[in-house]
Amino acid sequence: MNNSFNTLLNKAKKSLNQAFSHAKDTLYSITGTSSASVQQIADFVRNHPDAKVVKKEYIGITLTFYELIQGEMRYYLETNYAKILQLDVHSHNHTVVAYRSYRDNLSVNTPVKFPDLQNAK
Length: 121
Known about the structure:
The protein is α+β, with helices and mostly antiparallel strands. Helix content is about 35%, strand content about 35%.
């Protein structure tokens, strides 16, 4: 039982490490650095020609929804004019970035850091 749990845990770590590694590579190609802020990722999604954009108005407030898929990377962005309300980045079916304006205390300009799971125990 313990051996099968360790095997499952190692597979999960390997899968997450692949997702984070892929995300780091993609962010490096976007920004030229190995990290990026929520604002930089949002700007990338907003300005990407392949992003699908939907605008909806709710009680007089216009919300814009962006979705971008590039290879194994999926980006989802919600904005209210210039304010970032939500940003999600997924790679290999794992959440890499999950930002919510109503919950997260960090500035949208704080760099996103990815854990190194290869050295995790």
